[in-house]
Amino acid sequence: MKTAIVTDSTAYIPKEIRDKWNIHMVPLNVIFGDQPYQEEVDITWQQFYEEVKTKELPTTSQPPIGQFVELFEKLAEDYDAVISIHLSSGISGTYQGAITAGTMVEGIKVYPFDTEVSCMVQGFYALEAAEWASHDVEPEKIIARLEELKHSARAYFMVDDLAHLQRGGRLSGAAALIGSLLQVKPILHFQDKVIVPFEKIRTRKKAMKRIEELLGEDAMGGGRYQAVIIHANREEEAKEWKAELAAQYPNVDFSIGYFGAVIGTHLGEGAMGMGWMRK
């Protein structure tokens, strides 16, 4: 059975890697005023952070269902099945869009998968699925493998300013933080598909140290891990952090990812995070 792999742009998998693994991408949109841009197609993360310095913060939107239908119908010409891997359904309707589109196409079976996270941790799922699909593994077995990865998947991040998340309605449980917003750099994570506070930390440096400790708790248990440091226009800081961590955890393969236009709209410049899962 020939299976195609689809993900959305918020996985932020570099194009050359998507091309290498034949991963198809459906873009979400970032809208400045009345001008929409498809992220990773019309606007790069670097361009986005330049734009927001001079323009009002944009809004975001999920891909139209028709875009999924069009892609799935095209894939049906060469594939029997498609696994469609998306950012958490608790913060976007993209996954639901893939489900709906899957009921509207004929000649191909669609297996939507909710990663319950976003960014390059979502990308890890897509890359794993693509590798398995390249060996002609049945789609049901690939889905089972992705579900297995959820047991070890973690993602923690901190933002410089919670206002973006609150304004966009992407932060649950924010009431607990309101009183001390200005003094706190809370660590956030996904729980039950939505973004919630994990711990209140006083400084950026301490927040990053705490995320590092959480990685250590898993990595010191043995086995190989893949981890990604994710930044919102803080590439040099991410590189420095990666160098420190790589020396400390030889059993972890580190890479650097980024918060692109859509996720960056909700987190704001300066956000930093890390995600990992067992290999």
Protein architecture, described:
The chain is α/β, with parallel strands linked by helices and 279 residues long. It contains ten helices and 13 strands. The protein has a six-stranded mixed sheet with strand order 10-9-8-13-11-12, sandwiched between helices. Strands 2-1-6-7 form a four-stranded parallel sheet, sandwiched between helices. Strand 6, helix 4 and strand 7 form a beta-alpha-beta unit. Helix 3 packs across helix 4 and helix 5 packs antiparallel against helix 6. The longest helix is centred in the middle third of the chain and has 16 residues. The protein is globular, with a radius of gyration of 18 Å. The relative contact order is 0.16. The model has no long low-confidence stretch (mean pLDDT 93).
